[in-house]
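Residues pack. Consider this:
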Amino acid sequence: MKLKGLSKKYKITLIMIMMFIIVSVIVGISYALWQIIEYQTNSNIVESGCLKIKFEELSNSINLNNSYPISAVEASGLTPYKFKITNDCSLATNYYVTLNTINGANMIDEDLVRVSVLPYELFSSKFVLSDYEINIDTYGLEISNLKQSYIMDKGYLNPKETVTYDAYIWIDESATNAIAGHQFEASIDVIAVATAQLATIRQSSAGTSPLVASSTIKNSIRIIEFVDHVNVPENALASYDISANQDGSIMSWYIQSGTAGTSDGGVITAYKLFVGQVGGVVANQDSSNLFKDFKILNTINLEALDTSLVKNMNNMFSNVSSNYRFASTYNLDFDTSNVLTMRDMFTSTGSGSNSSNGLTINFGNQFNTSKVVNMQNMFASAGNYKTIINFNGNFKTDDVIDMRNMFHKFGKNSTMELDLRNFNFDNVIFASDMFTDFSVNKKIYVKNTVDADWLRNTGFTGTIVDCSSIVCS
């Protein structure tokens, strides 16, 4: 290449470019001389897991032949259609229980049909089909003359886990003679979608807590703390693998923690129980009996417990602190937004017979009961002396149908005030004995005259303050 006739500036540029190319080639060659490649000796294998849901009918299907319009109260007394869903393979699954209506001649208008499909032997207050989420992904249902698909409930199942449902279908009492000779046809189908498996706590047997193996130790646990690791310390007196898979993914252990006074005036050695999982403990959908019968428990740290998936909290704190001599305060601020049932949740909690015994329950803002349908016996026989309960604004009862014995003998020997202004009693079907042995020295605040009259009809004979007519603090 000749550079004659180019300016000095351009000559320098071309020379620099040529030098760069030469250096680049040299560097490239030098790098290649020092490069070594090692090859994998075995092939990579990706093997798909197994996804299989077993649908088992536990009773005959519902037949609406010769049916007539009835109320929800009457419908709750019908024999439900029972079915069980089992995850029968190796992959975890999200499942969707759908009700799929069929097109046909002389069909009853869906607006006149009422349906309840829930697990844990529950009866819903959400009856109207149009209130449910529509299932837009109907691919694969293979249902002839499908009219509409509704998602009645959804949940999660690890391999080999099961859940049982009760289904009720009836004609609403508002139907007229115009529906005579008409029918309603629908099928219940379950859609399963594979998902990541969650480590879960083993299921308890015979209504006991799964957190410890020894009932003797359980009766001496004064403190429980959930943590985000499974590192059992050297000073642990014992440890337990409480994971459902027995793989060490969820562990519990306890250490000595001073002494504790019992209701009978005695003093016993007390322990602190830790429950750990990497990243925090994820509570099971069915967390019934989780803390049941920890009889001297007076402190619980739930910061590392994720309860966002829980549907069942029956008996969760039943009989807790029932043998503790002194006052217990529980600040409960955990996610209950998906919980359906809280039956017996605090039955006999803090019910010690010693006059020094006391119980305070403070519900935080995360304690959201908007989906709960059953509060039967929720606070029955809880507390005795010096009983205080503070409901937050998210303690809703809009969907609750069962309040039987809810406050039966609650704080029996305590002078107490209950602020129920946030309660809604519109959908309550069952309220018998709601305030049995409760009324003496008790005062209840309500938001209006309708609620005041409703409470009197349940048999409450204490003081009712109607906050629609006076200023309530």
User: Anything to note?
Assistant: DSSP finds four helices and 21 strands in the chain.
